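Batch manifest, entry 17 of 40.
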Amino acid sequence: MKLCWFNENKLGVVDDGLVFDVSAALQSLPAPRYPASPGDLAIANLDTLRSAIDKALPTARSHPLGAVRLLSPVANPGKIIGVPVNYQKHVEEAAADVATFTARQTGSVLEQGFFLKAGSSLIGCGQAVHIAMPERLTHHEIELAAIIGKKAKNVSESEALSCIAGYSIALDMTVRGAEDRSLRKSLDTYSVLGPWLVTADEIADPQTLSLRLRVNGKDRQVANTSEMILYIAEQVAWASRFYTLEPGDIIMTGTCEGVGPIIPGDIMQADIESIGSMDVRVIGEATA
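Output type: structure tokens
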């Protein structure tokens, strides 16, 4: 199932070029209480929600996909976990251009560990990346995103993939500079997730997916998730040693070689096999 949030926070199911408004299914979710339990309410109750969606679909109003504005398919992530330099060719790319990537960012994920991105940086593909520091380089980084579906702590690699609710395409936007990643990657709009969440049952093997990013129609990044240094199951298991993973947490599983600059007016076109594709606009400070 392909799930999305669209327009004014409506819940949708995407099928055959249409978005079906199944917002009525949200009534199946437990009433939120204060203080709220950690995690995204919809993701935490995904099985219940999917059952209600199945009942709502036959009478759901549909919209052409191109006529709606797609928001982030995860509305309330507790945390966004970044996995740096997780493809060998990107390790080599960073080492060969220390002037851009800086010496502190060399070496693979095994040496550098994880980092966190601010939840306030998250947008959907129907919004736009806003270049807020035009005096600096901003680079694109396409990544497969894994969305955690249940609370997990100290899980084994064999259990790890069962903790994932679904997958999306992520753009981990990055301002280049010497500061810590969590600062440079947490500007508003610098985490893009979309175009929808594909539930894990529809992805036979997340470790064999082709990915591609183009800017204005020209290839920049082309790879396959099989080329990761730290596989997704290893990422979930390792991350759960440090953090309690909660429903709706997003793991951006690392980018491949070919990262490059974007400027206002550019269109980023991101594709991942078995998920779909999304176009994301880049705008400047003065653009509404």
